[in-house]
Amino acid sequence: MRPSGPLRVSIIGAGLGGLLAGAALSKEHDVDIYERLDIYGGRFTNLPYEGFQLTTGALHMIPHGPTGPLAALLDRVGAGVKIVRTSPMGCFMTKDNRQISFFNFRELLSARAQARIPALMAKMLVQKKGTVADMVWDDPEWLQLSDSCCGWALSTLSRDTPGEEAAAIIRHVVGGGPGKYNTPGVPMGGCGAVVDALARKLEENGGRIHLGEKVDSVIVEDGKAKGVAVGGERHEADMVISDIGHRLTSALYDARYSNPKYADVLQKLRPSAGVKICLAAEEPLVGHPGVLFTPYAQRVNGMNEVTHIDPSLAPEGMHLTMSHQALRSNDIQQEIKLGLQDLRNMFPGKKYSVLLVQTYRDDWPVNRISSGFDLGNLTPVKGLYVVGDGAKGKGYMEVEGVASGVANLLDTLKAN
Prior knowledge:
Helix content is 30%, strand content 22%. The protein is built from twelve helices and 19 strands. The strands form five sheets. Strands 7-6-15-16-17-14-18 form a seven-stranded mixed beta sheet. A five-stranded parallel beta sheet has the order 9-2-1-13-19, covered by helices on one side. It has a three-stranded antiparallel beta sheet with strand order 10-11-12, with no helix packed on it. The longest helix is centred in the last third of the chain and has 18 residues. The N and C termini lie close together (10 Å).
């Protein structure tokens, strides 16, 4: 029987998912978040460097801006963050380095490829099997566009992205009716402003964040989570929520409490990986705050320049440009080399400097489970739940998926 009154909630990891869940639950319950690092925010916070606000992972951009799942959940928990919508939503860079509107993508296609647009639109309504590559008929022209979009938004390529998931994402972006979230937005103050607001709200509600505190194990008795062990000490809890993904969470409790099917699925799942390159320039490189998709680059899938909306993310008179590319091989140095060469090719004669190159893979990936393969919030252990980028809501990109997954968990707990 569920205890009456406030529950004791232990959360493993103070990434965006853990902070969202903690801020929401701390309204009514007693919440402790244990974070092994000495900072909170995970891959969604700021890294101050020479006057720039770089990030630990994300790109200072919220895919659906002030009307998407993340903005809605921030409002729901009372964490006020100003999110400014980008204009334009995005552009494509042509082979000769011009920019055209995202919605004029057909200009990049031959007459033969353009003739397939109606059939592709129809596929998006019914696609249930296969990958994005299957959806676009493995057509080389279409693959360049879809790889750019998938690589930027999901850090996967067309052949690794489920068509059904991509179709759901597209409907959320450009579909009609209440499902339309529209263009991206920039949180003023960057990623750090979001997690700082959540941490403040958690603490205002009486919750606690324990930095530098690594959870050693989840305490399970009779198949139910009873708390966590940290530094050899037992911390009792009525509910445990993990923000470190299904696989790492499963390693925290005895395997006998799992089941063969779940364990087998975990072994087959793969994270999505990527490379981010941060540039500093006095003269704008992208020239607008929207996404610039780069379908003809060797590696770079897209980039943004959010300092057009929030100049505080760079020193006065400077711009911060961030490129992103899905990782295509295990030769990291070669992947970075090709990405840097792409930038030189796209901005010939432009003056800029490389501030930082970051790689996201293995246990510090872009997503702990690639989009379209998320396992949801439940685990084989009662009272143990997963949030974050391995438990995203269906059809939502990156942090919107994280927020959707947390909202799904809150609804599940309310129903129970």
